[in-house]
Amino acid sequence: MENNKRPESMVRITTPELADAFIAEQVDLVRKQVGDKKVLLALSGGVDSSVVAALLIKAIGKQLVCVHVNHGLMRKGESEQVIEVFRNQLDANLIYIDATDRFLDLLAGVSEPEAKRKIIGGEFIKVFDEEARKLEGISFLAQGTIYPDIIESDGVKAHHNVGGLPEEMQFELVEPVKLLFKDEVRVVGKRLGLPSSMVDRQPFPGPGLGVRCLGAITRDRLNALREADAILREEFSNAGLTDKVWQFFTVVPDFRATGVKDGKRAYDWPVIIRAVNTVDAMTATVPEIDWAVLKKITDRILSEVPGVCRVLYELSPKPVATIEWE
Ligand code: XMP
Predict the structure, then answer these.
(1) What is the distance in A from the centroid of ligand 1 to the CA of 152?
(2) How far, in Å, is the centroid of ligand 1 from the Cα of 1?
(3) Which atom of ligand 1 lies closest to the CA of 204?
(4) How far apart are CA 199 and CA 80, in angstroms?
(5) 323 lines ligand 1 (CB under 6 A)
């Protein structure tokens, strides 16, 4: 499609001034496209959907209906941040759905990674579809498609996260950042007033913590994973590593190990720390993290997270390992 091709003359949006010009232009275009109709957006809280939401709120205010589905596999505080930023600060029309039980019930006993991904993606569409049907007068669907989605996957933004919407739900699309690269989307997001913790955040798989709670997901391991991840993020931030390490997270395997707690034998979960540096995620190296930082994280996870008795730091580069464990 012609309008899906970035013109060679288009300047890269690298400065606040260029972002302001882009925002003004898109606000105008969106208003012309949408008129007084309503637009629906699945707002995950990731960079792309958040920037699209902020842009559309500026353009059409409450004509935008954002739906945030919490699949129970978000990191600690993520859904809360979506509510705080969009409902409380930007006064958006935001529907929040806590679908944790639905997802975790469906995932119970499912251990094969691709089967888990399929369930999470399929259920996401179902929940979103159910919610959309309750709404009246929606004419458009907004999407955080960005240029790499178009180049790499025929413009199907949702392909690796959630699949596509059902046939009868094919609204006309509003895709204001579809010609931008990720770094440009971040510059635009900052000018729209989104916090750095939302705009500069590292990649997070659509299936979320679901692919880091290995094998069949259980609530106790998922909880341990989420708490350990929050400690890792806090300590990396305290140590000034957030800008120096490209992606970091924790993993909880589905096997236990022995330990000693309060003088008694324990049989608990290990937590693996995964940190990588990369340019394009095709290859990755493991950074040398200061021993004192790793020790502090280990001590905190062992004392603060129930059900955990070991912490490991992973040394495998990509290849041979992938970045994620599933
Ligand atoms: P791998 O594990 O393939 O990861 O080395 C490369 C990058 O892609 C991210 N990733 C995903 N992102 N849905 C996503 O949206 C997924 O299912 C998925 N799997 C991996 C991963 O976090 C890393 O940045």
Answers:
(1) 14
(2) 28
(3) 22
(4) 16
(5) yes
The answer, as to whether pTM is greater than 0.85, is yes
pLDDT at 170 (0 to 100):
72
Domain coordinates in residue numbering, the chain: 16-199, 212-313
Nearest protein Cα to ligand 1, atom 18: 205
Contacts with 108 (C-beta within 8 Å, 6 or more apart), sequence order:
216, 217, 218
Proportion of the chain above pLDDT 70, given as a percent: 94
Task: Please state whether beta strands 64-70 and 93-98 pair in parallel, antiparallel, or not at all (unpaired).
Answer: parallel
Residues 288-320: pLDDT tens digits? 999 999 999 999 999 999 999 999 999 999 999
The architecture in CATH of the region 16-199 reads: 3-Layer(aba) Sandwich (3.40)
The Cα–Cα gap between 141 and 222 comes to 32
The answer, yes or no, to whether any atom of ligand 1 lies below 6 A from the CB of 160, is yes
Name the fold adopted by 212-313: GMP Synthetase; Chain A, domain 3 (3.30.300)
Looking at residue 155, its pLDDT comes to 57
Which one of 202, 212, 213, 323 would you pick to mutate in the ligand 1 pocket, going by the greatest count of ligand atoms within 8 A of its CB? Answer: 323
